[in-house]
């Protein structure tokens, strides 16, 4: 069941569907054509998640003191 990518889709739901797709493909019980179709869906979901997470990262700021001792927001950087 392909998820419709729209404004109501959450990152959590997209990640859950990506996990389902991974499991289905790893089981190896589907045709090559079905695998390619699922891969295409997964690619769209990955792009969706990446876009949403990039937007969320822009919203997350860390407050840091500048040289004058005032708090100012700085971009959040996530290091894996």
Model description:
With 80 residues, the protein is an alpha+beta fold. It has one domain. It contains two helices and two strands; from the N terminus they run ααββ. Strands 1-2 form a two-stranded antiparallel sheet. A hairpin with a 5-residue loop joins strand 1 and strand 2. The chain is elongated, with a radius of gyration of 19 Å. The protein starts with 10 loop residues before the first helix and ends in a 5-residue tail after the last strand. The relative contact order is 0.13. The mean pLDDT is 88.
What is the number of independent domains? 1
Sheet-strand content, in percent, reads 5-15%
> Using DSSP, what is the number of strands?
2
Shape: elongated
| Helical residue percent band | 55-70%
Mean pLDDT: 88
Rg over C-alpha atoms, rounded to the nearest angstrom: 19 Å
Poorly predicted parts: none
Side-by-side strand order of the widest sheet: 1-2
Number of H/I helices? 2
Helix-strand pattern: HHEE
| Sheet/helix structural class | alpha+beta
Largest sheet: 2 strands, antiparallel
How far do the termini sit from each other? 32 Å
Key terms:
80 residues; 2 strands; elongated; alpha+beta; single chain; 56% helix; two-stranded antiparallel sheet
